[in-house]
Amino acid sequence: MRKRKPTTFILFMSFLSLSVLFYILFIVVSADRLVNNLQQRGYSILGSISYTLFTYPIETANQFVDDFLTFSKLKEEQRLTQAELDRLAAFRAELEESYRQIRELKQLLKLKESMMDFSTLPFRVTSRSADSFSSIFLINGGYLDGVEENQAVITSLGLVGKVETVFERSSIVRLLTSQDVENKVSVRIQLSPTSSAEAVLDDYNPNTGLFRLILLDTNTTVNVGSTVITSGLGGVYPSGLLVGYVEEIEQLPNSVSARIWVRPSASFMTFDYVLVIKVGSNDE
Prior knowledge:
The protein is α+β, with helices and mostly antiparallel strands. The protein folds into 3 domains: 1-114; 118-179 and 272-279, Rod shape-determining protein MreC, domain 1 (Thrombin, subunit H); 185-264, Thrombin, subunit H (Beta Barrel). It is 39% helix and 30% strand. It contains 1 helix and 12 strands. The chain has a 6-stranded antiparallel beta barrel with strand order 1-2-5-4-3-12. Strand 4 and strand 5 form a beta hairpin.
C-alpha cells in the first residue's frame, strides 16, 4: 500500500497542473477576446466621433457645394433660355411689324393704281408725338416734293386728314380726329347706286371712335351701313375719298332730323405710309 502513494500523488499533481494550465489558457483567451471587443468598440466610438466631427461636415459641405453649383448651372441655363425666348419674341414682333408694313404698302399701291382721277404722292410717317397722337403727325415730304397746304391725306383704308404746314422736306398733317381745331368735312352718304345725300362731318367722339354727321336734307332716309365719301364741296377734300360707314342713326326728340354716327374706314392709330392727294390725273 505504501508503494501506490507516489503514483496517486503524481496523478493528482498532473491533473492539478493541467487544470491550472487550462484555467490560464481560458483567462488568456478571454482576456484576448475582451481586448479585441474593447478595441472594436473603441474603434467604433472613435469612428463615430471622427465621422460626426470631421467626415459628416466635410461630406455635407461637399454636397452643399455640389447642390449650389448644380443650382447655379440650372439658373444660368434658365437665364439663357429666357434670354433666347425674349430675343425670339422680339424678332417675331419685328417680323410681324415688317409683314404689316408690307401689306400696308401693297394696299396703298393698289389704291394708288386705282385712283386715276388723282395724282398721288406717297410718303412715310416719320414722327408722331404721344402728346398729339390723335391730332397731328409728320411725314417725310415737303414743298420740294410737291406737297402743299390743305391737300388731302389718305391711307390704304381711307381719309385720315389734310396737310396743315409744309416745310422743305417735311410736312405736318392734321388728323380728322383732332380736337384742337374745328375740322369740318363736306361728305356724301351713298343711299343707292344712283342716289346720295349731302352732309357735313362736324365732330369726332374719342370715346366711341365715331364721327358725327349733320344731314343737310332732313327728308332723306339713311340706312345703317351706308358708305360715306367726300363730296368735294368746300374745295379742300376732292370728291370720292372714302370716309367710313354709317353705324348708328339717332332720332332727335321733337325734330324731323337725326344724328348720324359714322365709323371711320381708316385706322387712326396704326399706319406708317400715306398718300397725299393732288387734284388732277396721274398723267399730269
